[in-house]
Amino acid sequence: MKTLCNQNHTAAVLISMLAFATAIARAADPLPSWNDGKAKQGIISFVTNVTTIGSPEFVPAAERIATFDNDGTLWCEKPAPVQLYFALDRVKALAPQHPEWKDMEPFASVLKGDWKTALSGGDHALLEIVMATHAGMTTAEFEQIVKDWIATAKHPTSVRPFTEMVYQPMLELLSYLRTNGFKTFIVSGGGIEFIRPWAEKTYGIPPEQVVGSSIKTKFELRDGKAVLMRLPEMSFIDDKEGKPVGINQHIGRQPVLSVGNVFSGGDIAMLLFCQSHPGATLQLMVNHDDTAREFAYSEPDNASLNAAAANGWTVVDIKKDWKNVFPTEAPAVTSIDILLEPDATMIQHAEAVNGRLLEVYPVGFALDATHRPDSITRSLRRIEP
Asked: Which of 22, 58, 223, 304 could be bridged to 262 by S-S, CB 3.0 to 4.6 A?
C-alpha cells in the first residue's frame, strides 16, 4: 500500500502545483480580461509610476483616489438604466394603493407596460415616477426595498441577475487599484441610496464611498425611534457638472484616476476635474462599440469621444480592449480524475487484505466485469475548489 500512498501524495502535489501556477499567472497579469494594448498598458504603467517610491509621479496612498461612473461604466445600462426598471416595478407594486393611476400619466402607460410612452414626457414624467416610488418611507425601509428587488430582478434580454451584468474587466481594475493602495469610489447620476445597498457585495465599494443623486430627507421620531423620512423633492443631481461638486462634497479630495463612458456626456466634467489635479492622472472613457457581446451606442454630438481626443484621454473600446465583457459562471466543482495502475507489490498487498476480509465475510463481494477484483484501482475525484 506504500506505493499507492506515494502515488496519491504525488497526485496531491501535482494538484497543488497546478493551483499555485494558476495563482502566479493571475498575479502576473492583474487584468486578465483586458487585451494587451494601449489601454491596458497605460493603466499598468500609470499604477506602477504613481505607487513606486522615488518615481517622479509617485502619489501618496492617501491621495490615490479613483472615481468610477456606474451605469455603462461598471455595469450594463441598456436597454435602459437599471434604476428605471426598479422604478417601473415599484409603480406596479404600489398600483393597488393608487387606483387613480389607471387614468393618470405617466403611470397609466407604465401599468400597460408601455414605458416608452410613459417616458415621452421627458424629465417631468421621470421625476413624477421617481418621486412616487422613491419617497414616502424611511431610509431604512427604502434600503430594504432595494435589497429585496435587486436580489431577484433580472436583465430583460440576458435574463441574468442585474448584479451579474457587471463588466468583468472593471471588476479586475477595481481590485487591481485597491491592491495598490487606491480608494475606489462610485460617482453616479443614479440614486445614492439605490446604489449603496448592493455596491459593496457587487463591486467591493462600501456605502460611504458612493456618491450619487439624492432626494431630501427629514429627521423624525416615529414611536420614539429616530428615523430619516424620504421626501418627494430632489436634493442634489450628481450628473455632468454636478459630479465634481459631488466629489468635493462627499470625498474632499480630487481624484487622480477617473473612469466614465460614452452615453450623454455625463462624465466629461468629472474627467476634466480629475485631469486638473496637479500631479499624475489618468482618465478612461469606455466606448460601447460591441454589438455582439453587449450593446453598441453613441452620442448624437459625439461629445465624450471628442472630449477624449481633445484632452488626451484613453478610450477603452469594448470590442478591441476587452477579452470578456461579463463574468462567466465558475463551476461549483472542479473534477480531476487520476488513474493509479497497480503494480506487483500493490497486488500482493491487496491479496493479503482480501484474505483477511474473506475471514470476516466469507461470501465476499460481487464485482462486475469492468472492475478489478484486487480493489486497487483508485481515482481522485471531485476536488472541492
From this structure: 304
